[in-house]
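Exam revision sheet. Question 4 asks you to relate a sequence to its structure. Input first:
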Amino acid sequence: MPKASSSTKRVERKSAPKISQAVREISVETSDGSLEDESILDDDMIDFQSEGSADDESIGDDDEDLMHGDDLDGGDRQEMEDEPEAGPSKPKNHRNLYAPPTLDELDTLSSTSSAAFTLQLSALLQSTLLPTTPHSTLKTLLTDLHGVINSIPSSEPITPKEGIKKVGLPSISPAEFLPRKVNWTVGYDKPKEVFVSGSWSVVGGYKVGKGEQGGVDMVLVMPDVCPSLYMSRRSIDDQELFTPKDRLDYRYFYKRGYYLGIVKAGLVKAAKAEGGMNGASVTWDSQDERRPVIAITVGKGSYSILLYLVVKLTYSEQGLKHRLTIRIHAAPPTNFFAPSTLSPSRTLLRHADLDQSSPTPLYSNSLLHDTIHKSTLLHLHKLSTTLSERVVDSFLALWRIWCSRRGIRRERGGSGWFAGMVLGWVISGGEVGAKGIKRRGLGKGLGYWGALRAGWEFLGMFAKSHYRKKWLIV
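Answer key, structure tokens:
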């Protein structure tokens, strides 16, 4: 049988839908369900359509009519005409649609939204804070350290150049302020007072990592004179270690550095000898190059650090559960420098290459830091007795974690000292400006999370408002 040409197939495909429509119209006119003209069923074109491919059957009648330009069926058109037309929109009453939540709803929302966050904070603090009672071994170590410092003998006053060479003092000042030919000396005598400062002595320790505890700060109050030199010196001027003029041109910082250098040499000997400090690491820690401190690393665990690719340091246990660093600071005699002489608006550096009218606020601030150890300790103690239990140490711990995760260094605001100042402002308020405009605090009923949020808002307010050009007293 010869094959049909492509043109014949196209004609057959176009004719098939019309024949199917005719069959449908005839079947509608009958009442008993049978067709009146049976010869139509015998048509070859209908047989060809019924035997067509599945693709041809999938094309609907209406779609074929639309493809060939035919209109919709009468029934479909009638259904569309019977549908009612949309009338004009009526205004709705939105008064009850956005009703404010009730007090019960607010309590429910507050409890469900903050419950998970509160649990996270509690778990974080539980894994960070240590018991307020210090470990007995750490107490014994601090007692041994106090005894070693008091046993260091006095030294004769020498020139600053000789003192720097003797103790290996790190760089403190720029080259133009190196003491070459000066008429003042440096010396050492046992400290007037030794006390533990910082938050550890008030609210206990905290963890900073796996097997590592936060540091402990010890302050040595340097004497203004050397009583042991009374017999060898004829005048009182020869017995003075510090004078009020030491605030100028790095003189105080060089005397302070030499004093700590003598203490460091004595601690290194104690670390090599038998005793409670045996095996401890004694190094310099210079977060502020003007005020280097002694860092004594002790505690459980051991690891190595390469300094200048030569020196290898190892830390032994000393019977402690956590590894920690004891930082030894030096402070001038109490009330030795008048606060007005250390004002940030004053010029304390005098050199031919410097403008004598330019203030030196960073230099003054560095010196002031050495004068507030005792006042900071009393401030934290007052906060701990005023606020609820463990609010102060929780606030300080969250502040340190927040600063650590945002890369804020200790000397740039990540320390417990700065956090204590912020907490004091939040609770008690302070004074702004030279006229002493008072700003009220939020009171002692705040928790640690509310105080932390208020501290962030305080810093944002101080940075963006007109307060940034004024003094702040807390």
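Marking note for examiners. The first strand starts at residue 155 and ends at 158.
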